[in-house]
Amino acid sequence: MENDPNFPAANYQPKVLFNDPGYKHSSVAPVAPGASRPAAAVASSASAEVEASAPAKSGSSDTTLFGLIAVAAVAGYFLMNKKGGSSTAGAADYSVANEGATGVEKYLEKMGANKTGVAKYLEKQTEVPATGVSRYMAKQVVKDREAAAAKRDNG
């Protein structure tokens, strides 16, 4: 095949940029989870993995376990002692100090802007509106007073 000079990848030659002298090639190819392998390959690869990883894991897992326990102990200590730099205590102090109305609330109160329509309507009403029952009762009281006054005058 002839190389095309207009195609830049025609003369590409891969180069090794990194070499790891400690690399050990495994004869068992990685398999995706859920895929099946022959039983002999599973047994031999499992025993090789256990033998290779057991010494490495015991030292690192002890260190990791110790680190996790130390972090949990420190976190527990700080959670139990909330004296140092707790932001909730400052917020509680602020809310207790500012129990009164803010400037905006005072302004709205003075202008009457924070009142509902019902509150404004009730303020405009000078007296309690008379219902039919209340008018009837008022008339009965007037009649009773007139009757009592007539009795005193006659008797």
Describe it:
The chain has 155 residues and is an all-alpha fold. It has helices at residues 39-80, 87-97, 103-111, 117-124, 132-154. The radius of gyration is 46 Å and the shape is elongated. The termini are far apart.
The termini sit apart by 144 Å
Low-confidence stretches: 53-57
Q: Number of DSSP strands? A: 0
Mean pLDDT: 74
Task: Provide the β-strand percentage band.
Answer: under 5%
The description of the largest β-sheet is:
none
Rg is: 46 Å
- Determine the fraction of residues in helical runs and give it as a percent range: 55-70%
Can you tag this structure with a few keywords?
155 residues; mainly alpha; elongated
Structure summarized in a few sentences:
With 155 residues, the chain is mostly helical. The protein has five helices and no strands.
SSE layout and pairing:
Layout: H1 39-80, H2 87-97, H3 103-111, H4 117-124, H5 132-154
